[in-house]
Amino acid sequence: MSLTSILFNIGAKKSDRKRDAQIPYPAGVQQWNDISYGPHGKENLLDVYRPVGAGKCPIIVNVHGGGYVYGSKAIYQRYCMDLARRGFTVVNFNYRLAPRWKFPAPLEDLNNVMHWISKEGQWFGDIDHVFMVGDSAGAQIASQYAAIATNPDYAALFDFRVPDITIKALGLNCGMYDAAALAAGKRTATAKDYLGKDIPASDPRLQVLGNITEHYPAAHITTACCDFLRDHAQPMADFLRSKGIPVALNCYGKDGDKHISHVFHVNISLPEATQCNDDQCAFFRSYL
Predict the structure, then answer these.
(1) Which residue in 15, 161, 191, 209 is deepest, having the highest Cβ count within 10 Å?
(2) Whole-angstrom Cα distance, residue 94 to residue 110?
(3) Cα-Cα end-to-end distance for the chain
(4) What does pTM read for this prediction?
(5) What would the pLDDT profile of 33-59 be if each residue is shown by its tens digit?
């Protein structure tokens, strides 16, 4: 792991612990924890959350962020339970991290989660109404997986079979979306850890935008006034609209609101996070 990624891990872990120490677990939510969905031990575990007493709710799959090198379902548990209390079944999972595991390991794991939902989801959710959210690196992974799931020619480039399950809409939060650009030029520490040195920007599997078709899911794209990836939101929204895909784009907070920054929506104690998550869930309900 690069020094940059090591420092990122240390800083992110400290920040997440400080945030979560101030947030109680949302009440009124059932949870089933540490369910195996794949062959990679702790890295292939998932949780399921659902409102107490609810029937088969529409399903939200959460793809956590962390620059491909950090993150887990544990630090997204409060956020995902908060989504669940809005009337959804939420699947929150671990995936394999860089630098030990390189691209496309997270996509393979997400695909295995979708297979698990296709097989088991009928017992706890409405598998005819599946949505997906992701933030930061998780937004990139979710956006790429949606392209794979809706374009058979693109899916054929990967060594896995996509299940017969439809993603009704996406929630893309504080992300970047052009994988080829991530790989191009002088690679950042993140790109080196995730892509290694052997995958060129010309690799057809990285051509995400070029493989988005009119069948791509509707997208609710969010960013924040002080999100360091803010400049990626508008271009993605414009690109999807150019393909005829329904898009909602929201930027939360005001200039100078430094606490309304990257992945602010996970800090469910913030009014702006509540508004963002309400808006995204309302967007999903419009596709029920």
Answers:
(1) 191
(2) 9
(3) 42
(4) 0.96
(5) 999 999 999 999 999 999 999 989 999
